[in-house]
């Protein structure tokens, strides 16, 4: 482990070997431009969604009425109905899909945001300038009001993409609530292919503080976003376990009241570093902290 905190382990080398078999190798983030900040796996393998994640969505995906009744937890999210009305108005938000395409995954008019390309061949995160060039080629500019959505909030695609956009310094970005079923019920139409958009120039104004470095671990509150089993087997000394599933509700994110209870043990006046063995789980908890006004950043285990 490359950090200043002692790693408390219940499985030692066995866990390291198992993690390598399941999650693949990790490489230093030397090109991040803001410090080492942990390490990232290649492609979309960073997601690391727990096995329970799918069942969480299955329990709520068919209950459109319950989803509509649950309050919107933050202004950084948009309801499917609000997006439908937006798309039928004069000023339309740019919609960007960040999942793994299968069937008819794209809301009509959406682009495909190349989230899988934000990693180098050595599995490190590309620099903000390189990511900005990728997103610009996909048709995104820094001034675009953008809606990010994937297939299932619990997988972390949405929240990691949101984190990347904020890392670039993007101001107007929101996540789409609900599931495909509730989105279709709101009037949104799904199609098999994205809508091409002319390239733009993306001028990033990166917020490098969102990527935690090793020397920040000692002075920050640490949150382990993995499952209790993973936490009990091995975690950073002093870290609090907040399983990413605890911050998820039927629309994607749990209500403000629920999040307040989950984060009751954290000091809002002090910085928080959220980590997991893969960026997806950590980004879900990071996003929840972000919506509640915490000063939070991401870090990943090696």
Describe it.
The protein is an alpha/beta fold and 302 residues long. The chain has helices at 13-23, 53-60, 64-69, 80-87, 128-137, 157-168, 180-185, 228-233, 256-262, 279-291; strands at 7-9, 27-28, 39-40, 77-78, 94-97, 106-107, 111-112, 146-149, 173-176, 190-191, 221-224, 234-236, 240-241, 272-276, 296-300. It folds into two domains: 7-42 and 209-300, Oxidized Rhodanese, domain 1, CATH 3.40.250; 53-207, Oxidized Rhodanese, domain 1 (3-Layer(aba) Sandwich), CATH 3.40.250.10. Helix content is 29%, strand content 15%. The chain has a five-stranded parallel sheet with strand order 4-9-8-5-7. Strands 13-11-14-15 form a four-stranded parallel sheet, covered by helices on one side. Residues 10-36 and 54-74 have low confidence and may be disordered.
Percent of sequence in beta strands: 15-25%
- Return the string of H and E elements: EHEEHHEHEEEHEHEHEEHEEHEHE
- CATH topology assignment of the largest domain: Oxidized Rhodanese, domain 1
Number of DSSP strand runs: 15
Shape call:
globular
Helical content (DSSP H or I, runs of 4+): 25-40%
Name of the CATH first level of the largest domain: Alpha Beta
Instruction: Give the tally of structural domains.
Output: 2
